[in-house]
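W.,

You were right to be curious about this one. When I first looked at the sequence I had no strong expectations either way, so I just let the prediction run and decided to look at it fresh. Below is the sequence, 570 residues in total, followed by the output.
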Amino acid sequence: MYILGISTGIISSAALIKDGEVVCALAEERKTRKKRTRDFPINAIKFLLSSEGISLEEVDYVAQSWNPTINLLKYKESYSNSYRWFPEMLYATPNHLLEIINQKDDCKYVLQKLAFTHNDSDLNIYYVQHHLCHAALSYYLSSMNEAAILTVDGFGENACCLLAKGSVSGINKIEEIYFPHSLGAFYETMTEFLGFVPDSDEWKVMGMAAYGDPSVYQNAIEKLVILKEDGKYELDLTYFEHYNFDTPKRYSPKMEAIIGKARDKHESIEQRHYDIAASVQLTFEKAVYHLLNYLFKITNLKKVCLSGGAAMNCVMNGKIVGNTPFEEVFIPYAPDDSGNSIGGALYLHHNILGRPYNVKKETSSYLGRSWSDKEIKEILDKYQVSYIVPDDLYLTTVKLIKDENIVGWFQGRAEFGQRALGNRSILATPLEKDIKRKINAKIKYREDFRPFAPSILEERVRDFFDITENVKSPYMEQVFPVKKEMQSKIPAVVHNDGTGRVHMVSKKTNTEFYRLIEAFESLTTIPILLNTSFNVSGEPIVNSPEDALRTYTTSGLDVLVIGKYIITKK
């Protein structure tokens, strides 16, 4: 049985699951090269069908990760009483009927069936609640029999936070917090206040926080998020305008009255901006831990699954075990909206269709296309690119890395999500501090305060990082302190506050990347490589060999390793 999952939120995507297994998934941006596009993922869908060798008629069900019926619960006469286009009756009719129905529920999903006269394959489209898709993504990929679930984002339909419980019998909703009281919107608003693009540049605020003193603005910024005694929270909306969609800014003049003038995007970044970022990060963390402590209290479970855009905050993620009673945390490889194509399909399979959930030991983020060495050679020859084929690809590559060359690494199936996990990566030595500045300035074209992640052999992670035994970070989703005695050995991957965004590399899930790091360890005794996504600022991560060649030739990359071929500029 095939289920096609579709997400048209921030970074639209499509996914295909077969008998409950995720077989392939792709963000539309990877095909169109339009970063963070919300366009309908038609190119991604065509790739998925081609990859499996099937037609849309062979797909049994479609899951869309948004349930618009929730947005129809309030009757809108101006939209529903006249049609500009006859298909608008598809929402006008239920909008009228929902006005007089006696039993209004929050409507977990909607089924839209298109039955064709000369085709036995009906098109069955399920519209699933946004936060249930987030929850399903995290729980059904977690390998946990039973877990508490927390999803936090800007908003989906009318909710911005879901507390739930997952078990082999399904996902059960406990409580929701509704827009505009959104922690995601809080972080987006402060991203805009600091002169960056909301729903895009939250990474920058998180990175800036390590350079700031939170105590400078903490008393003021804590007023924005009120932690309530019942375990939940609310925003002081007098400081915000994010819920007034026609206003030019997400914050009110009152915000500037307590923390000063907002930064214009063209202004230089001053110390006060770093201090504000530090307070924003601390306030956000406190609110999430407040929710998690409440979730533990009402579920009494020791394991928790997180999802939603807020779960991309890896600094917060790495402190959950130390700040809550939860002992084990799972965060999937794409907790943002792009992952909801997978989450919606999994929710449909397990919760709506009632198919059993079999707990698995491993999940994989490598869900895109791979290219064979023969295909790669044909492309290189077509563009008359000179290359070598070394006897030992791994040893030759790490010698180049050790000599401070910055390497584009293109191998196997593309990763799904916003993290480069060793198949579409830019790699460098962690041993030289100045390499970070070089990558930011000449390749990534971004702010110098932005950090880079250490990819480390999973068996060696506790030699370098302060991490408890039960904590795993396979998707670069958590930040942990670097041991003080190790910070001088790997300065390029140590952030300003002495931490690193850890990517534990398993031999089972990525043998090629594991072998590469092993080879670097054999030369240097350090089982770590600096790893960042294979793209430049403003572009999606590379998807194809052509993408890799274009990025390599137009940036400061020194070397491109693509399949078994090595290309250099020297």
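Here's what jumped out at me. The CA atoms of residues 70 and 107 lie 7 Å apart. And, maybe more interesting for your project: The longest helix spans residues 271-299.

Coffee later to discuss?

I.
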